[in-house]
Each structure stands twice: as C-alpha cells, then as structure tokens.
Amino acid sequence: MSLGSWKKEFYPTEADSDEAMGDAVGHSLLKWIGLRQENLKRHGVNVSHYGNLVDEHDCFVISGSSCSLCQRHSIGCNHCPLLVIRDTSCASPMSDEKLSPFDEWEMNFNPEPMIYWLEKAKEAGL
To answer: What is the number of structural domains in the chain?
Structure first.
C-alpha cells in the first residue's frame, strides 16, 4: 500500500476535474474521510509536520489546491457550501471553536471537524 493506493481510494480524480467539480462536497468529503488515521495507516501513509501526506516516494499537499470546493469557489469563498453552512469559511474559527476545521488538520492532524461540516453541507443539499 502507498500514497498511490490511498489516492485511488480517497482521491480518484483531481480537485479541478469535471467529475470532482460536479460533486465538490462529495469529493471533498471522501478526501477528508481518507485522512482518518485508520485509513492513512491502512495505506502506509504518514502526515508530515506541515499536514501533507507522504510515503517513501511521494507527497500529497492538503490545501486549497487539492480541495474541489476551493477550486470551484476559487474567488474568495463566496457560495462555498462550508461558508454557507458555517457562516464562515473552513479556515476561520466560529465563536465556539478554538481552531477552524482546517487549522484542526494543520495543527492537530484531526480531520473530524472538516468531516462533520462536509456531512452537514451534504445533508443540506449544498
């Protein structure tokens, strides 16, 4: 198993592909589910100190460049489902959060807040 096998399961198309853009929330949700420790471990993938995925041969950057929502809503976050559902972007904390969902990943390698909000956006049909 490797970063290649992880991508095959959790990131089968690039964020800016027509397929990903057609279901940007679903594409993003699949990627973030793939960032759960059990999925990374199963594929032999580690998280670098910057929050990127690495194996012995490759690196995959977790940023706006690998986010179908960021690619679809590339000018600011206007109309991004996460902005709509949270009333603020995924990179800004809400009043009851110490860290934004994206900062939770970058600082603690915790994908759960992003998964939570992406599931809420999906349930709302955004």
So the answer is: 1
